């Protein structure tokens, strides 16, 4: 999620439906899915086609699979039966008992209490709600009935276990959250006990009721609720809220104007929810709850409450906000009339003790360029400060924001220095490459492509289109990293002469030009069979950076189809040149040179995206014909190698058996 890259994608056949969430088996690193209620599938990362993976048809419909880190997967059936996955796989068609008859399961969760897996699920029948607790190793099942209240119906559940007690929280239709305590140690064998509910929290904001749809527990004193805030005469607005249950206060909230699916997940101090058409991830951090924090009167900026550590910037519609607290040092509130020098001194004086990164950057918003960049360099030099990566991301964001507000300002050297010397990612500052594309800063784009592991396919395509659209003559005036082409294209600059040379299995060609601005009419960079390199070394180096970037074919292909036909042909010519070159010398030498697999993958992608256009373009006809002939020759060559594979293996076996003590010559005849 942090890299914003899909790692795998699997599909069931048309007509089949995945009927419960897919889980990961932590012990075997396998994925487990149920489709059409009864069909179990198990596969690993390397598997591609679900039709060829393990399949088992079960005897009863499955409600949910829960995966426990140390307890293995647990399968809950719709009629209340429970099995561990290991037991189920021993006999997939084993009979599953019916625990519930007319009840419908509404929610379930699994926990580990010591070495004991515990499963809890709730059911509904005719408006009554029931709770089942099953301890798998002891094979004990307890059933409870939830206390019923008028005009109140449970909408959502969540639970946690501590000290042999399950705490079940219910989000109810009367805009309240209730708490139910269920002890794991039961001395009685009564069939059904009634559980009483105690009010934990009223979801009311300034007299307006929050209609919650889902909620999660953050710690013993905080919960997060996703829902809509209704007001009389106004349209309801969806929002994410964080509440302090100990002091009954709203800690912070955020409006979600694009709408959500109503589902909220929480994992490793991150919220996950859909906002519009994207999955949004928001980091949070809970500190020890205190009354001062709960009522927003916390003075010490070093020990803020939960609201100070919710980074709402993920939603993308605000400027840099690191701390959500409204309190700022008084020295920074009324300083607009100070001189720049005194302003800089004030910042330097209070920064170490009282200023957060966000406050410092906010105070530098109107500073001169020199002061601004000096302070940013000083901030980055503190390599030992906590959250260093996040700080660099904030610095980049501040630089990009200034570029947007002042079109004449573009600190190329500083941006390049940060990207080259820091271990960064695209997600730390998504706007960096967008601005570089606007400025056509190809050197910075090349560096980002080489160093960022998480560049979205849309941005990769934009870089490719930009590189192909700039003429070779113009690129020769620009600094570009040529490491990836130097080892197979020798480049010497002598006044206005360009000399290129193929190092292996080729020959040199020389071309004189009257001017860099004149169009190159003759091609250099010849391979052994006379194929020309269709681009200059600068453009070749930029395209090599694109070939090295990670991508998902599913997400890149739609963008690649928008590439203009002439640029697509040019790119294919270059890929064909690299393909032939790789075949001559087996692998391109040098730093960051494309591999044969990368070249082949991009050729296939480009042909998939533009095959119809390529076939109809006269200038592409010869290229496609040459490509077809070359691939056919390669296939024949490897086919001949396959024929003697057995003989070569036998030869290798014979050589291992013999012990050559002295010099000898042996002639073997392959029949």
Structural summary, described in words:
The chain is globular, with a radius of gyration of 32 Å. It has 19 helices and 27 strands. The model is unreliable at 297-309, 316-354 and 492-530 (pLDDT under 50). Among the domains are: 359-454, no CATH class; 456-490 and 532-616, no CATH class. The protein has 671 residues and is an alpha+beta fold. It has a 5-stranded mixed beta sheet with strand order 8-9-10-11-15, with no helix packed on it. Strands 17-18-19-20-21 form a 5-stranded antiparallel beta sheet, with no helix packed on it. Helices cover 32% and strands 26% of the residues. It is found in: Nucleus, Nucleolus. Residues 1-285 form the Nucleolar protein 11 N-terminal domain. Keywords: Activator, Nucleus, rRNA processing, Transcription, Transcription regulation.
E-strand count: 27
Distance between the termini: 56 Å
The profile of the biggest β sheet is: 5 strands, mixed
Q: Assembly state here?
A: single chain
Number of helices: 19
Structural class by sheet pairing and helices: alpha+beta
How big is the Rg?
32 Å
Average predicted local confidence, pLDDT:
77
Strand content: 25-35%
- Global morphology: globular
- Helix amount: 25-40%
Low-pLDDT runs of 5+ residues are 297-309, 316-354, 492-530
Order of adjacent strands in the largest pleated sheet: 8-9-10-11-15
Pfam families: Nol11_C, NOL11_N
GO molecular function, one term: RNA binding
Main location: nucleus
Domain Nucleolar protein 11 N-terminal: 1-285
């Amino acid at each position: 999620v942090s890299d914003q890259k899909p790692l795998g994608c699997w599909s069931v056949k048309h007509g089949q439906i995945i009927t419960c969430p897919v889980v990961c088996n932590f012990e075997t690193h396998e994925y487990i899915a149920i489709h059409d209620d009864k069909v179990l599938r198990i596969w690993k990362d390397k598997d591609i086609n679900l039709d060829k993976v393990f399949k088992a048809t079960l005897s009863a419909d499955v409600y949910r699979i829960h995966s426990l880190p140390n307890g293995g997967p647990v399968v809950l059936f719709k009629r209340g039966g429970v099995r561990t996955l290991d037991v189920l796989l021993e006999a997939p068609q084993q009979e599953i008992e019916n625990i519930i008859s007319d009840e419908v399961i509404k929610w379930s969760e699994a926990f580990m209490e010591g070495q004991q897996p515990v499963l809890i699920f709730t059911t509904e029948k005719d408006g009554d709600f029931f709770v089942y607790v099953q301890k798998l190793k002891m094979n004990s099942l307890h059933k409870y009935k939830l206390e019923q209240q008028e005009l109140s119906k449970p909408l959502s559940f969540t639970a946690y276990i501590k000290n042999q007690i399950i705490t079940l929280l219910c989000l109810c239709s009367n805009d309240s959250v209730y708490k139910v305590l269920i002890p794991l140690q039961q001395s009685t064998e009564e069939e059904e006990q009634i559980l009483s509910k105690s009010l934990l929290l009223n979801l009311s904001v300034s007299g307006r009721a929050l209609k919650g749809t889902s909620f999660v527990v953050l710690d013993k004193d905080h919960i997060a609720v996703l829902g809509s805030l209704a007001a009389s005469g106004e349209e309801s607005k969806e929002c994410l809220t964080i509440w302090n249950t100990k002091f009954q206060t709203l800690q912070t909230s955020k409006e979600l104007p694009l709408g959500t699916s109503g589902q909220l997940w929480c994992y490793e101090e991150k919220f996950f929810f859909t906002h519009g058409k994207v999955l949004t991830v928001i980091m949070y951090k809970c500190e020890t709850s205190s009354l001062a924090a709960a009522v927003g009167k916390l003075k010490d900026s070093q020990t803020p409450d939960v609201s100070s550590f919710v980074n709402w910037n993920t939603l993308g519609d605000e400027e840099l906000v690191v701390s959500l607290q409204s309190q700022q040092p008084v020295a920074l509130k009324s300083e607009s009339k100070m001189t720049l020098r005194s302003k800089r001194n004030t910042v330097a004086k209070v920064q170490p003790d009282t200023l957060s990164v966000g406050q410092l950057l906010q105070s530098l918003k109107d500073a001169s360029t020199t002061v601004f960049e000096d302070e940013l360099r000083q901030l980055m030099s503190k390599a030992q400060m906590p959250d260093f990566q996040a700080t660099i991301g904030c610095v980049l964001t501040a630089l990009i924001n200034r570029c947007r507000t002042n079109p004449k300002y573009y600190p190329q050297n500083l941006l390049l220095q940060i990207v080259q010397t820091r271990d960064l990612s695209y997600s730390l500052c998504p706007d960096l490459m967008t601005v570089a594309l606007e400025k056509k800063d190809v050197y910075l784009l090349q560096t980002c492509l080489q160093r960022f592991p998480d560049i979205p396919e849309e941005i990769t395509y934009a870089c490719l289109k930009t590189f192909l659209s700039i003429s070779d003559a113009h690129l020769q005036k620009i600094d570009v990293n040529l490491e990836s082409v130097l080892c197979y294209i020798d480049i010497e600059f002598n006044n206005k002469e360009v000399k290129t040379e193929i190092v292996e299995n080729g020959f040199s060609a020389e071309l004189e030009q009257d001017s860099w601005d004149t169009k190159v009419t003759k091609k250099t960079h010849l391979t052994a069979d006379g194929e020309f390199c269709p681009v200059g070394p600068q453009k070749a180096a930029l395209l090599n950076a694109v070939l090295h970037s990670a991508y998902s074919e599913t997400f890149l292909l739609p963008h690649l189809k928008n590439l203009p036909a002439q640029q697509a042909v040019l790119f294919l010519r270059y890929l064909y040149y690299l393909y032939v070159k790789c075949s001559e010398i087996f692998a391109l030498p040098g730093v960051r040179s494309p591999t044969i697999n990368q070249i082949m993958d991009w050729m296939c992608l480009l042909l998939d995206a533009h095959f119809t256009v390529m076939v109809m373009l006269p200038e592409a006809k010869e290229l496609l014909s040459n490509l077809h002939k070359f691939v056919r020759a390669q296939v024949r060559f490897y086919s001949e190698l396959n024929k003697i594979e057995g003989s070569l293996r036998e030869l290798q076996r014979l050589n291992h058996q013999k012990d050559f003590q002295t010099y000898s010559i042996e002639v073997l005849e392959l029949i």
